[in-house]
Write a structure and sequence with these properties.
Elements (H helix, E strand, L loop, with lengths): L3 E8 L5 E10 L2 E11 L2 H12 L6 H26 L6 E14 L6 E5 L2 H8 L3 E3 L3 H5 L9 H8 L6 E6 L2 E7 L5 E8 L1 H12 L8 H4 L5 H8 L2 H4 L13 H7 L7 H23 L5 E5 L6 H11 L3 E4 L10 H15 L6 H4 L9 E3 L7
Parallel strand pairs: 1-4, 4-6, 7-10, 10-11
Antiparallel strand pairs: 1-2, 2-3, 4-5, 6-12, 7-8, 8-9
The chain binds adenosine-5'-triphosphate (ATP) and magnesium ion.
Length: 373
Amino acid sequence: MADELYLGLISGTSVDSIDAVLVGFGGDMPRLLAHHAHPWPSSLRQRMLALAQSESALDMDAMGRLDVEIGHQFANAALQLLADSGTPAGAVRAIGSHGQTLRHRPTGEFPFTTQLGDPSVIAERCGIDVVADFRRADVAAGGQGAPLLPALHAMLLRRPGHSRVVLNLGGIANVTILGAAGEVRGFDTGPANGLLDAWCQRHRGEAFDRDGTFAASGQVDPALLEAMLGDSYFALPPPKSTGREHFHLEWLARQLPPTAPSPADVQATLLELTARSVAQAIAEQAPEAGEVFACGGGVHNGALMRRLARLLAPRLLHSTAALGIDPDFLEATAFAWLARQRLLGLPGNLPEVTGARGPRVLGAVYRAPAGSP
Ligand SMILES: Nc1ncnc2c1ncn2[C@@H]1O[C@H](COP(=O)(O)OP(=O)(O)OP(=O)(O)O)[C@@H](O)[C@H]1O
Ligand SMILES: [Mg+2]
C-alpha cells in the first residue's frame, strides 16, 4: 500500500529557518521522504525576534500583520518542498503547521502560549488541509503545552530494556527520557542555542557561532556561570517548559558581574551554561540512562558536543544520525505526525510529560478551499 503523505512545518525558538518535511506513514511509523529548510527574510526575522524577546507593549497591528506574513512564509516553505520533491498538492493528506512561537507563558492565573502563522493563508495558498494550534488544548487542560516531541521520540528511539535520553538542542534544550520499562518523561532543561545566537549576533554580527569557535576562543567566567545557574528555573521540578521570553539578552545582562567579562568569555560561559544545565538535568532525572541521542541544530556545534560528552560520561553521547535519523528534521516530522493524530481523532500530548489533566486531541483543522486538488 502506498504511504499516506503528511507535510510538517515548524520554525523553532532560534527563528533560524522554517523546516518543512514530507513524511510517509505506512503502518504507523513515520518515514522522512523529503525536507527543505526555508530561510526567513532577514527583516521579518528581526521583527519576530524583537517581539519574541522584548518586554515592550503589545502592538495589535504589528501582531495581526505578522501573523499573516508568517503564514505566507510557511506557505512558501511548503510549496517549495512540494516543487522540489515533485509532489502534487493533491497527494498530501494534510499539513501540520506549528507556526512561530512569540510568547510561551504556561504558568500563572491565565496561562497561554502564542504561535503565529495564519493557517488559513497556508490552506488557501497550498490547497491542502492544515492542522495548526497544537499547544493550546494541552495548556487549557493544565499542561505546559510543551514539549510535544517526546511521543515521536518514544516511537522512533525507544529500545525495550534500555533507558535512553533524547536531547533536542534547539533554541531551548529539551530532553525526552525513555525508561527501560517503556515509561516516557520529558521537559525543557533551559537555554541552548537561543542565547548563544543572540550574543554572537551582537558581538560578531553573525547569526550563530559556527562550530562554537567563538565560545572556544574564550574562558568560562565562574562568577557569571554561578549567577546564571542560580536562576530558579533550573531547580524547578518537571513538568516545566520555557522560552525566549525568559532566557534572553536582558536576562543575561542582569547576571553579568560588575567587571564584565570579554565577549568571548561570555560566549564560553553561555556554552558552559547549556552543557552544565543539560548534564545536571540528565543526572538528576535520568540517572539510569546509558545513552544520550542528540538532535536539533546544536549537534553541529562541535565545542558544545565535546563539552556535553565530557560532562555526560560515562554515558555515551551520539547524534541521532547514528541511528539513521536526520537530527535537523525530527521536530518538523513531529508536526506531520501530530496532524495525522488530529485527523484520526487521537491524542497528541503525553500528560505525564506536559502535566495536562489527561490525553488531548491537539490542533484545529483549517480546510483547503473547495475544489482544491
Ligand atoms: N554548524 C553549526 N555550528 C554551531 N551551531 C549551529 C550550527 N548549525 C546550526 N547551529 C545552531 O542550531 C540552531 C538551529 O537549531 P534548531 O533549528 O534545532 O533550533 P530551533 O529552530 O530553535 O528549534 P527548537 O524549536 O527545538 O528550539 C541555530 O540557530 C544555531 O545556533
Ligand atoms: Mg530551527
